[in-house]
Structures are given as structure tokens and as C-alpha cells.
Amino acid sequence: MPVSERLADADIRAALDCLAGAWLTMGPRIATLEERFALEFGVAHAVAVSSPTAALHLACLAAGAGPQASVVLSALTGPEAVSAVRLAGAAPLRADVVDATAPGLDAEPAADGRTTAVICSHLCGMPADVATVAEVCDARGWTLIEDGTAGLGARLASGRPAGTAGALGCFSLAPGGAIGVGEGGMVITGDERLAARVRSLRSHAMTSVTWDRHRGHADTYDVVDVGFNYRLDEPRAAIATSQLGRLEERVGELRRRCEEVRAAAGAPLLWDAAVAARSAPAAAPLRAAAWPGAHAWPDAFAELPEARPAPVADAVRRESCLVPLSLAG
């Protein structure tokens, strides 16, 4: 995953225009980003937040995850998803992937009587089989949350954008994908109730925010719940909006770099156009080919010894490595 990002001239101009103005947090550029993001993904609501972990945390809370609940996740998911579940007070349950050829998870065997939600992660830019997971969730009454922190710009088998098949979709705006602004996240949903819950908790559960009061839409506020400071600032929103306008171009560049990784590895990728090079020995030629950041998969469940065995995911972790891409040049 990239950790660096070279901003285009248009991104820099957008940020400088913001910095030359008088509004730096939760103002007109946040509103513009959310409007355009919702339009791009064909959903009714988009809520910008400070990080992908914040996005997943708020999605869990909106889905009713709490101290008496559990949430099922893929054994290959990243630490932000497991952390989000634990921050909500719920128990993360480790589900195996269906097979080693595509991201996805076998949710039902991992669930228990407390399960209220499933987080289905799109991995390495590749969409999971969300339709199958959605059928299980619908049958069981679980809320489906799509973790698109590594899948912004991917398309589902149906042709819809990844993140739009579940009740809530979560994305990262950190360097590492198709939009990179430093730190940031986004929650999308077609459900007005879920959107209102996420939007409220993002800013201390206040009934109005400063931008509302500045425009005369409110003259005071109440605090109606325990909320958080998960607000995204205006300069990052400006950069994200600029990059959103070039989303297809940026996704195409990431795909081109995946092909470079494939050629350097001399081995097929774990998933077509993914950034995980099949077989651990591939790490050596990748490092020699100027990818010094090639590394093993992290185990987000490492501190949870009671986690359910996941033999297919564990085999993927043993037999593959992650290779960093970058849009930094």
C-alpha cells in the first residue's frame, strides 16, 4: 500500500485556495466533497470523516454494534476494521476467506448469537463477492458494512462501485489508494437514518455544527449522545474533491503499477490486478526491483487468541507478500 503521494498541480491549487480563505474545518468544501462523492457512487448520502478507522467505527455504531454484540470480519482484513469493532465495544469474530483466489469471507460459520453486522473487506483493490455475503446477511438480519479502505474505485461483479452493495460503505482517503489526501475517510449509505447517525457522531453528537450556525441555519446546539471529533478539515476536502475528478485516471495508474509488480515478481499475483505477489520467495526479486517495502501480511487478530481458525486465510498469509505501490512518481 502506498504511504506517499505526489500531489498534482490542481490538487495543490485547490489546497492553496482553501488556505487563502477563512474556513479551515467542516465548511463548504466538505459539503462539496460529500455531494460529489455521493453522486460518483450513486448513493443518497456521503459523510466525510478524519480516517478510515473513524469511518468503520461510526459505521459499526450506526449498525448497532456495541458491548452486547459481535461483528464478523475476514481473517485477512486490516487492523482498522478490527480496531473499529473493538472501539464500538463489540467482539470481532474471525471468518475464513472462501478460497485463495478472491477476497471474500465465509461469514455464517464464524457468527454467534450476538452477531449484528458483517464487515466485508475489499482487499488490494479487488472487490469481494459481496452478493453472496449480502444474501447471508439478509437471511440473518445482519447489517452488511463494506470495508472499501483498500477498494476505492473497484467494481463489483454487478458493475456497481464497491461500497454500494451493503447498508454502509467505508473508504480511505489516506495515501494507499485512488484518493490520497494524507488522512481521511468516507462513509456512504442510501439509508437516511444511518447517514444521520454517522453525521451526528462525527462531530460530538451536536445537533448543529459551526458551518450550520455560520449560515444562519441554527443559532445554538445540544449534545445528544457521546460523540467524537472525527471531522475532516477543509484543505484535505479540497484535495480529495480535486482527485475525485480524476478517479478513473488514478485507478488506471494503480493498475499499471500492478502490472509492473507482476513483471518484476516473475510470478502471478494472488488476485488479478492485486498487489499481493503469490509465493513468499517473490519478495526477494521485488526488493531487487526497487520495491524495498515488500512485506508479510499483518494479522489483525494476533492479539485475540480466541479467534476462530482460518486455514485458507492463514495459507494466503504464509504464501504471499504485500507490495507497496505509490502515486508519488
Could you walk me through the main structural features you see in this protein, from its secondary elements to its overall organization?
The chain has 329 residues and is α/β, with parallel strands linked by helices. It has one domain: Type I PLP-dependent aspartate aminotransferase-like (Major domain) (Aspartate Aminotransferase, domain 2, 3-Layer(aba) Sandwich). Helix content is 37%, strand content 13%. The chain has 12 helices and 9 strands. The strands form 2 sheets. It has a 7-stranded mixed beta sheet, with helices on both faces. It has a two-stranded antiparallel ribbon with strand order 8-9. The longest helix has 19 residues, at 247-265. The radius of gyration is 20 Å and the shape is globular.
Rg over alpha carbons: 20 Å
- The count of DSSP E runs of length 2 or more, i.e. the number of strands, is 9
Query: Based on CA inertia axes, which overall geometry fits?
Result: globular
**What is the oligomer described by this structure?**
single chain
Structural class: alpha/beta
CATH topology: Aspartate Aminotransferase, domain 2
Highest CATH level, the class:
Alpha Beta
How would you state the average pLDDT, rounded? 86
At CATH's second level, what is the architecture? 3-Layer(aba) Sandwich
In the sheet with the most strands, the strands line up as 1-7-6-5-4-2-3
Straight-line N-to-C gap: 14 Å
Question: How does the major sheet shape up?
Answer: 7 strands, mixed
Q: What's the number of helices?
A: 12
What are the low-pLDDT stretches, counting only 5+ consecutive residues below 50?
Answer: 271-282
Q: CATH superfamily name?
A: Type I PLP-dependent aspartate aminotransferase-like (Major domain)
Strand content: 5-15%
Q: N-to-C SSE series?
A: HHEHEHEHEHEEEHHHHEHHE
Q: Can you give the helix content as a percent range?
A: 25-40%
Tell me the count of domains: 1
